[in-house]
Design goal:
Blueprint (H helix, E strand, L loop, with lengths): L13 H18 L8 H11 L3 H34 L1 H16 L2 H11 L5 H23 L3 H9 L4 H39 L5 H10 L3 H35 L1
Amino acid sequence: MTSITFKKNKKIKLWAVLFWLFVWEGVSIWLGQEILLVSPVVVLRRLFVLIFEASFWKTIMFSFFRITEGFFFAVLAGVLGGSIAFKFKKIQELFSPIILAIKSVPVASFIILILIWVPSKNLSVIISFLMVFPVIYTNILNGIQNTDKDILEMTEVFKVSEKNRIRYIYISEVYPFFKAACSVSLGLCWKAGVAAEVIGIPEGSIGEKLYEAKIYLNTPDLFAWTIVIILVSMLFEKIFLAGIDKIVQWIEGM
């Protein structure tokens, strides 16, 4: 069976990064007000100080585990929900208004509403779930619906078992949709999860650090923690996508 490939033009060139860093530095010098726009050198210096503090890593772990927990639950629910919705038309019709509502309602509305029901420390789990679930569900459903009908008819003729259909056909056809959904939703869950923490202000979270930086007009900390969010999000995305690539290759090779 032909192996699955998924190509993305997401490589960031070093020269482009350096260009925008120089622009950042230039604008910072031109403004001459660190409270408005701090220099990248100052931000990196502050980040270097933070990484040697034990509380820094505890804060990252607090937010990381909760946001990724919401993500993994959403992936599982989205895959199961999309598969069931394909099998049963009534389930698909039942899910449609919920999916539309989650896509349409502003994240802030969800955050404020959920804060009424759950402690702030669990807020980012639920918000991450809500942001990821519709993306995974929709892509899984679309992937199954776009499976080559001729191949499926052939499996009917040759009486291929349901297990082998899933292994050799559905996984190949749906995987590009699933991987694209994961790539998009990983960024969404971090943005929404941290935003939820900024509003809920759970103790020991990245959102709390951003809120404190805003309250005390601590621009270096604000930029430093923003860079941390970007780096952690990118690292997790690369590890997760590489992991599911390996799993699919292993299933194909069985």
